[in-house]
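## Example record

The block below lists the input lines for one assembly entry, exactly as stored, with component labels intact.
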Amino acid sequence: MSGCLIACRSLTYAQRSARALENAGFTATVLRMPAALSDSGCGHAVKIPERMLAESVALLRDHGLLPKKAYVLTEDGLYAELPL
Amino acid sequence: MIYLDNAATTLRKPPAVARAMGEALRRGGGAGRGGHEAAMWAADTLFACRQEAAALFGVDNPERVTFTANATHALGIAIGSAARTPGRVLVSGYEHNAVMRPLEALKEKGFTVEILSAPLFEPEITLHRFEEALGDGGGVSFVVCTHVSNVFGFILPAERIARLCHAAGVAFVLDAAQSAGCLPIDAAALPGVYIAMPGHKGLYGPQGTGLLISPANALPEPLLRGGTGSRSADAAMPDFLPDRLEAGTHNLPGVAGLLEGLRYLRRRGVDSVLRHERALTESLLRTLSRRPRLRVYHADHLFCQTGVLAFTVEGMDAECIAEQLAQKGVAVRAGLHCAPAAHRTAQTFPGGAVRVSFSAFNTPRDVDAFLRALEGLL
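Predicted structure tokens for the full assembly:
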């Protein structure tokens, strides 16, 4: 998996976030959160290109959507949390 | 059939409703239950419907739009959420059993129900009754009010009652069963209000659908608990909407159909529907009001009335009239309309009334056909 994941509290929140990003011309996809990153099971995330993280987070905050955490898949197959 | 029972369920829907339901059956999986194509298609459909409803009702955040099985389900959640502290519960007197029966059950928990018995088609007096009751010694736990009487089409002053409640810090539950899709509703003008509505009446969706719009920042009490596809390791229900109120697999075909009903309304315009239904009601009223033995319940110039008209016939049983009309291929509703409180308030209890209710799809020819059928009975 390339790109990074923005963790969302719910599927609908992820959909709102993705829609806000898409409306601004960004690429965003809603997907299930990898189990390793889901602190209480069954979560959703928005996948975006890693280079767009800062801009995406800023845009989401402008829309009142507050990303919880962001992760990137590292070369060793583990997820690393990215600073927001 | 001449169908004039739209206040119960709109029978004729935009053609896209049935098409969307069929497509949902073929393509949709369990929304939020997987990342595969079928599950995500379902999730997209639910989200599109939330967004469409939010746009139609002026809701700033689609997470505040919750899917329910019907208006009764939505009202059950809203009333359960508003009933935090035992006290006085105020109602107008035109409420449906979907409101009155949950309130009856609350009496066992120390709530008292005050029926304000607002006179029919008198919105100013109605407002004054709420104003007085809210200022009368306090202790009001919450207010429930129907937006439009399902029996008489009386439009109650919901926005002004909401402002009174907001100023008094009292929770307000609005039963929009007969107004959603029939009257413009702006949730932004109803701060702190739970708005409950069915999908199968004025929103032109299928039976088995409903919506609850929760106030901003509210954390309603679930009526049903179970799987939500989110935070599955937690024993408790999620503390965020809409998941908190949507346990179990969604009625995806229903929501897909409802989405098309909402889209139809946005294209046509709720104002346009209201004008159309009122024109039909006026036309019917002009003839009915000239008939001897008939008592027709209507507002002056229909200023606070939707496309619903109730009448009684001296010496004739309301149910028998409806039955005979049905035999002539005309569908209306008679009796107490699951709203004995409304009939008591309007003094049509226990005999009830005959109710004619229009939709966007009725035509003047339906009015003529109804009048011909009724003429044969009188």
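Chain B is about 40% helix and 15% strand. Residues 78 and 124 of chain B are 26 Å apart (CA to CA).
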